[in-house]
Design a protein that fits this description.
By secondary structure, the protein is an alpha+beta fold. The protein folds into 2 domains: 11-78, Double Stranded RNA Binding Domain, CATH 3.30.160.20; 81-154, Ribosomal Protein S5, domain 2. The protein is built from 5 helices and 10 strands, in the order αβββαββββββαβαα. It has helices at 11-14, 62-75, 115-124, 139-151, 156-162; strands spanning 18-31, 34-46, 51-59, 78-79, 82-83, 86-87, 91-95, 98-104, 111-112, 129-135. The strands form 3 sheets. It has a 4-stranded antiparallel sheet, sandwiched between helices. The chain has a 4-stranded mixed sheet with strand order 7-8-10-9. Strands 5-6 form a two-stranded antiparallel sheet. A hairpin with a 2-residue loop joins strand 1 (18-31) and strand 2 (34-46). The N and C termini lie far apart (48 Å). The model is unreliable at 5-12 (pLDDT under 50).
Amino acid sequence: MNEPRKKYQQDFIVDKFEKRSIKMRPVSHTKASGRKRKFSAAGVVGDGLGNVGVAICSSKEASEAIKKCYTRAMKTLIKIPKDGTTIMHDVEAKFCSVRVLIKKAKKGTGIIAGNVMRDILEVAGIEDVVCKIIRGKNPLNVAQATIKALSELQRVSYFKEGL
C-alpha cells in the first residue's frame, strides 16, 4: 500500500545533491508595529550529472531560509544535455537587465566564469565551458539568466530530426 507523504519527506533526497549558497542577506519591512526583519537566501542544488535547480526564498531565521531555499530548488530541477564534459552548443540568454553567454570549450579548459555562474555549472557537472556576463552584476539575476540559458540547450539529435 502507498503510505501518505510526509510534509518534509524531500529532506533526505536533498542530502544526495550538492548544495551551494549564492547570496544571503537581511531584509526588513516597515509595518505599523515597526520594522520586521527577515533573511533572504538564494541557493543552487545539483547532482553533478546534469540536473540543477535554483531558488530564492526568505524566512525569519537565516538557517530556515537556506533550508527552504534548497527544498524549493529541488522542485525546480532542469536536465541539461551534455556532450562529455561540456555543453552541446553555444547559448545566450537574457533575464531582466542581465545577458549571459555560455560557450562550449575543449576538454581540459575548465570553467571560465564568474562566481555565481561557476557555482551553478559545477553543481550541474559541467567541467569545460567559457562564460561571459555581458550586462549587469546582480547575482540573483545572473543565476536566473544562467538557468534560462541552460534550459534552452537542445540535444544534437533534435537538430538532425528537423533536417
